[in-house]
Structures are given as structure tokens and as C-alpha cells.
Fold:
Amino acid sequence: MSTIFYIGVVMVFEERNAWAGLILTPLVMIVYVVLVLQDAGGGPLTDVDWFPLMLWVIGGGIVVTIAVTIGWGLIAGIKDPDGVGRSDIRDRDISRMGGRVEQGFVVIAGLGVIALCAVGADVFWIANTMFAGFAVSAFIGCIARVIAYRRGLV
Structure:
């Protein structure tokens, strides 16, 4: 089990952020979907007042991610006070690679939004397609970063 979660392994700041995103992004999306379904109450989803829900979930996700990152950084600082915020060229390269991976999925989501606009879809579907695209993009980018940290950039 420890090899899966790398227990006892010192991680750099950027890798901890990638792990936090990898863990929290699916949880944020699940919370949003559950809230929308509860608000719909078995009725049509397009009748849901989705905008405030989406804003609160995005804001809450950001706050929780910041809190987890700070907490994890404090714990890491106790274990390795000298290396807690250290960064090097490898971290920047991994960050750039993750950003490029994310961009591809944002483009796919954007094309989906354009297609939905072209067919005259309800604003609910257009907004939620873009929201899901951002979430998938962030999640896949975090996966790419974690893999790069553990296996290297090739």
C-alpha cells in the first residue's frame, strides 16, 4: 500500500499540489452532480438554478484545495524543513507538460460547447459541458504531472 501512496517519500511542493488536485477534483465534481440532482428533485435538469451551485462548488473546491495544500505543506515542513518549498527546472518542465495536456482537454470541451451552441442546446447543458471540461482537464493534467514525477519526462 505504501508504494501506491508513496508514504514516507518526500515530495516537492508542485507534486503535492498535483496530488491534491488529483484527489479533490473528482470529489468536487461528485458534490456538484449530487447537488444538481437533489435540486432537480426528479424534474428536468434544465429547471435547476445551476449558476449559484456551480459558483459555490468552484469556490469551495478552491478553498479546500488551498487548505489541503497548506496542511500538507505544514506536515512536509515538519519532516523536511529545508526542502519544503524547493523547486527546480524539472518541476517547471513537468508543470509545462501538464499544462499542455490540460489545454488539449479544454479545447475538446470548447468544441463540445460550440457544437451545443450550434444545435441550440439549453444554457444548462452548455455551461455544464464547459464546467465538466475544465474538471476533466484539471484531473488529466494532474495525472500527467504525477506520472511525470514518478516515472520521469520522456
In short: The chain has a mean pLDDT of 88. Helices lie at 2-5, 13-40, 50-79, 89-118, 123-151. The first helix runs from residue 2 to 5.
